[in-house]
Design goal:
By secondary structure, the protein is of the alpha/beta class. 38% of the residues lie in helices and 19% in strands. The chain has a single domain, classed as Carbamate kinase (3-Layer(aba) Sandwich). Helix 1 crosses helix 3 and helix 5 runs parallel beside helix 7.
Length: 236
């Protein structure tokens, strides 16, 4: 019934805004928590990484005069805020979860280690990985790839606001064609930017498939976990 037993779910910070221009939409947050609860109730082991673009993005900060390292550190803290919000929403939904941080900041979250992460998953709790990799110049996409590989996930599920990977931006090009599946090599050849190059290469080299799908449509997470042909699968 379930295709993927253990997954790394990557959520974008921008999606948490919902229809707002900034911050966290409580309705969108509750929708995500409900979908994650449904998956957890089926016995799926779930690790989650959330971006911070709804609050602060380090790269855009650098373009406005911020020191790049400081900007990236601010972005890491934005992911912690989002992780705490999701942790709270999951608690309200009746799902046990734990926030692990790549930078020491107890008691806000526990310091990340692979052993602690896997122990959390095996106990049936959702593990929320925050603060990226803990290093500047690495995106949360790269953090997702790293955590997905470390926890030995069956797949990385990249929840976005589009329903898969297209030949071009479907919002700008009405002739864009959607891929049901595509190889990592073809991603490189076509110059498609589903994630940054470092993140994509890590997944390719460690044989971690990626499923890009529309997380904002309620029910899609379960459909992906069951192996239904929605979104786009990226594989070797």
């Amino acid at each position: 019934m379930i295709k993927y037993k253990r997954v790394l779910l990557k959520l974008s910070g921008e999606s948490l805004m919902g229809n707002q221009q900034y911050g966290i939409d409580p309705l969108r947050l509750a929708d995500y928590a409900a979908q994650i609860k449904e998956a957890a109730d089926l016995g799926v082991e779930i690790g989650i990484v959330i971006g911070g673009g709804n609050i602060f993005r380090g790269l855009s900060g650098a373009s406005k005069g911020f020191d790049r390292v400081k900007g990236d550190q601010m972005g890491m803290l934005a992911t912690v805020i989002n992780s705490l919000a999701l942790h709270s929403a999951l608690t309200v939904a009746g799902v046990k979860s734990r926030v692990l941080t790549a930078i020491r900041m107890e008691p806000i979250g526990e310091f990340y280690s692979k052993d602690k992460a896997i122990e959390t998953l095996e106990k049936g709790e959702v593990a929320i990985f925050s603060a990226g990799t803990g290093n500047p110049y690495f995106t949360t996409d790269t953090g997702s790839s790293l955590r997905g590989i470390e926890i030995e996930a069956d797949a990385m599920l990249k929840g976005t606001r589009v329903d898969g990977i297209y030949t071009a931006d479907p919002h700008k090009d009405p002739n864009a064609i959607k891929f049901d599946e595509i190889t990592f090599d073809e991603i490189y050849t076509r110059g498609l930017k589903i994630m940054d190059l470092t993140a994509t290469t890590m997944c390719k080299e460690n044989n971690l498939p990626i499923v890009v799908f529309d997380m904002d449509t309620v029910g899609n997470l379960i459909r992906v976990l069951k192996g239904e042909p929605i979104g786009t699968v990226v594989h070797n």
